[in-house]
Amino acid sequence: MRPMEPSRNEVEIKLRFASAGDAVGRIEKLDAVLHRPREFEDNLVYDLPSRVLRNAKQLLRLRRKGPAVTLTFKSKAPGEHRHKVYVEHETRVDDGDELHRILDALGYSPWYRYQKYRSIYRLEQLEIAVDETPIGCYVELEGEPDAIDRVADRLGFTTDDYIRATYHELHEADAAERGVPVGDMIFTELETRESSSPS
């Protein structure tokens, strides 16, 4: 495991787009620079059986993205914010399978799995992530609050459009609307094959 990065405040919002093509088109019109090409992500969220982390608005996540594996711990920052604000600790992991066994031995097990395809752009010191998920396309703006507001406005959104929910919360709402169990937010095999390029 590599040294842990210093903790930092993660300030972000999500914006809902009709499609990845719409999102990428609007982002590229702002002259944003592609930082990381589209890549598949597989995420496992861990907790104790009592769901102590979830109840405390904390997240322990193991993310696999290509050959890279990252362990992240987030806790919600106190106070009310118009953006989503978390204190984040993150480190790269050399052996994800071994870390899974360590977490399991400590009593932590995966309780939620979610997948997405993510492309990352850079603009005005912001990280702009285009996330294609099984429940739709979302764009995450992460960085300084004022820069988030400026770029959201340039993309055609207002503060009323800001989404501060997690992907699990969005998935819960989507499942409730459709009257189906929540389960994991993962692509079917057919969706994975057909999702080789943004729609």
Architecture blueprint of SSEs:
Blueprint: E1 8-17, H1 20-29, E2 33-47, H2 52-55, E3 58-65, E4 68-76, E5 84-93, H3 96-105, E6 109-123, E7 126-133, E8 136-142, H4 145-154, H5 167-178, H6 189-194
Antiparallel strand pairs: 1-5, 1-8, 2-3, 2-6, 3-4, 4-5, 6-7, 7-8
Jot down its keywords.
eight-stranded antiparallel barrel, 199 residues, alpha+beta, 26% helix, 6 helices, single chain, Hypothetical Protein Pfu-838710-001
In short:
By secondary structure, the protein is an alpha+beta fold. The chain is 26% helix and 41% strand.
Explain what you see.
- The chain has 199 residues and is α+β, with helices and mostly antiparallel strands.
- The chain has a single domain (8-194), classed as Hypothetical Protein Pfu-838710-001 (Beta Barrel).
- Helix content is 26%, strand content 41%.
- It has helices at 20-29, 52-55, 96-105, 145-154, 167-178, 189-194, and strands at 8-17, 33-47, 58-65, 68-76, 84-93, 109-123, 126-133, 136-142.
- Strand 3 and strand 4 form a beta hairpin.
- The termini are far apart.
- The model has no long low-confidence stretch (mean pLDDT 92).
Please describe the biggest sheet, giving its number of strands, its sense, and whether it closes into a barrel.
8 strands, antiparallel, barrel
- Order of strands across the main sheet: 1-5-4-3-2-6-7-8
List the secondary-structure elements in sequence, H or E.
Answer: EHEHEEEHEEEHHH
CATH superfamily: Hypothetical Protein Pfu-838710-001
The helical percent reads 25-40%
Distance between the termini: 37 Å
Binned strand content: 35-45%
Radius of gyration: 17 Å
Total count of helical runs of at least 4 residues: 6
Shape: globular
- Stretches where pLDDT falls below 50 for ≥5 residues? none
Kindly identify the CATH topology: Hypothetical Protein Pfu-838710-001
User: Structural class from helices and strands?
Assistant: alpha+beta
Instruction: Count the E strands.
Output: 8
The average pLDDT is 92
What's the number of domains? Answer: 1
Q: What would CATH call the class?
A: Mainly Beta
